[in-house]
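Encoded backbone
================
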Amino acid sequence: MSDINLRFYEALNDFLPRNRKKRKFTVPFRPRSSIKDMIESVGVPHTEVDLILVNGHSVEFSYIAEPDDQVSIYPVFEALDISDVTRLRPEPLRHIRFVSDTHLGKLARYLRLFGFDTLYSNIWKDDELAEIAVRGKKRELLTRDHGLLKRSKVTHGYFIRSDKPALQIREVLTKFDLYRSVKPFTRCIPCNGLIHAITKDQVIEELPDSVSKTFDKFSVCEDCKKIYWKGSHYDHMQRIIDDLLEEQ
């Protein structure tokens, strides 16, 4: 029986066993199997793939593999426009928006703190997450669930490698080349709404006496109407931001 020759590059090797990392290996040829099915059969979610070359030519996920094909699979190039080469998607996801699965609540809060549009709910089921990711303005689905990324409906997604929130936010900012796009304190951390400045007179009746006597500058969330000021909690969040950005 003939084989198919596969070679995965860069971060895609995270999903492979040691004996298949960073080298060419073979899998049995299966008639009428799409290249997408063959890629996912070895453990790599299709959402992590941005370019497939078969015998040197770019192909779509629907390509039907043939005996002795030489297949090179490359990861998502969010920081590099390869639209003239890849055939996998009609257009790349350039204006990054996120939706986080139910296990990544702290990461979602970090992303909002840094100004990134990030949807999150701890009650969403996998079907809902997949639907949200592709609805309207497509979103990058962040998850630690391989199976969720293998759903055919999901076109953009990323498997979070770390299980620690402080490392997860670094991972996402690095993966999507977002350090230059950070806009702290522009989104509401609890609800993801945009924040804008508001005068003290407009909110004074809603402020605790100690706050109204101490602070003069305020902001409000357009959606949930939460009021913000630069108190001790602000100082704590600013230190988090400074510590992370100083490493770049």
